[in-house]
Write a structure and sequence with these properties.
Strand order of the largest sheet: 8-7-6-9-10-11-12
Largest sheet: 7 strands, parallel
Number of strands: 12
Helix content: 25-40%
Radius of gyration: 22 Å
Order of helices and strands: EHEHEHEHEHHEHEHEHEHEHEEHH
Bound molecules: (2R)-2,3-dihydroxypropanoic acid
CATH topology of the largest domain: Rossmann fold
Number of domains: 2
């Protein structure tokens, strides 16, 4: 007699082979549209599911967990952030919560560096200038002047996996690297040749300030007008972490007044960026649509890990790899 397959809800189409692997083992309900499911769709589709494979755009709170019912055993997020999931609620009910942890560190570090280069060397505006046929003089001594990256000072806020990957890249540019973290990490300091400083000192001394902290109660709006005022007039702020780490109205005001040289942003307080957002009108910014991890290799690996994490709990009936498990305390509530 064939065994009944576990039911799972996948909130967006993810890269293969993950979806095929999941479909072989489970009965998959998939949101086939290219947009995130609405709240109503989530509430309807989680009902009776044993697993949910979600994205950072899906809020998985107590109401959703309730709707899923007592069958729900695992919530696997296709992301490195997990602030969209009510971890406490899930843990209390014995639901394993997993994420894709460090899988996207290198891709995101690449993009952070891309933003540093784009901002400092006017790459985006120079491209527009050329394509818009504004290039009339063969060579000019002062056309599109930018700032040196080589030999400059980089300040990293949050020396986790992505911050460390950015620091490694900075060495190739002979940059001096300062960092600030909740906890000082002396072994990484010698490995990466980075210097720990207080946040205010980092802001005052850096030519590029790159944010890599997770979003938590300490980092929420950490960079506000008081902190922005500490930055050099020639410095750039780079954010590939979470929009909420920066108080956006303060950043807009700072950029409008040219109190810093510019900003390279991949994340925003509200995503997608509302059409009325004043950042869209500014010249001294490079804005990207939250694509830090968007490479074929990384997204495919994230999909595979997210699927594997879900199958570990539902099919293999074993604990997921500890590095992908958000709530290890769940093992006491529902041992596998
Ligand atoms: C994440 O996974 O949290 C990133 O922000 C998107 O890839």
């Amino acid at each position: 007699m064939s065994k009944k397959k576990s039911k799972v809800y996948v909130t967006r189409r993810i890269l293969e082979p993950a979806l095929s692997i999941l479909s072989t083992e489970c009965k998959v309900t998939l949101n086939k549209t290219p947009r995130p499911p609405s709240r109503e769709e989530i509430l309807k589709n989680v009902a009776g599911k044993a697993g949910i494979l979600c994205m950072l755009t899906d809020t998985i709170d107590a109401e959703v967990i309730d709707k899923a019912g007592s069958n729900l055993k695992v919530i696997s997020s296709y992301s490195t952030g997990f602030e969209h999931i009510d971890i406490r609620e899930a843990t209390a009910r014995g639901i394993y919560v997993t994420y894709t942890a460090d899988i996207l560190a290198e891709a995101t570090a690449d993009l952070a560096f891309g933003l540093i280069l784009a901002c400092a060397r006017n790459i985006v505006s120079a491209d527009g200038y050329t394509k818009n046929k504004k290039w009339k003089t063969a060579w000019s001594p002062d056309l599109m002047l930018g700032y040196n990256i080589h030999g400059s000072t980089l300040g990293i806020i949050g020396l986790g996996r992505i911050g460390a990957a950015v620091a490694r890249r900075a060495r190739g540019f002979n940059m001096k690297v300062l960092y600030h973290n909740r906890k000082r990490n002396q072994s990484l300091e010698s490995e990466l040749r980075v210097t720990y400083v207080e946040l205010d000192e980092l802001l005052a001394k850096s030519d590029f300030v790159s944010i890599h902290t997770t979003l938590n109660s300490d980092s929420h709006q950490l960079i506000d007008k008081i902190k922005l005022r500490l930055m050099k007039k020639t410095a750039f702020l780079i954010n590939t972490a979470r929009g909420q780490v920066v108080k956006e109205v303060d950043l807009v005001r700072t950029l409008k007044r040219n109190q810093i040289a510019g900003a390279g942003l991949d994340v925003f307080e509200t995503e997608p960026l509302p059409r009325s957002n004043p950042l869209l009108k500014l010249k001294n910014v490079v804005l990207l649509p939250h694509i830090g991890s968007a490479t074929y290799q990384t997204r495919s690996k994230m999909a595979e890990v997210a699927a594997r994490n879900l199958l570990d709990v539902l099919i293999e009936k074993k604990e997921p790899n500890p590095k992908f498990l958000v709530n290890p305390q769940v093992k006491n509530v529902r041992p596998l």
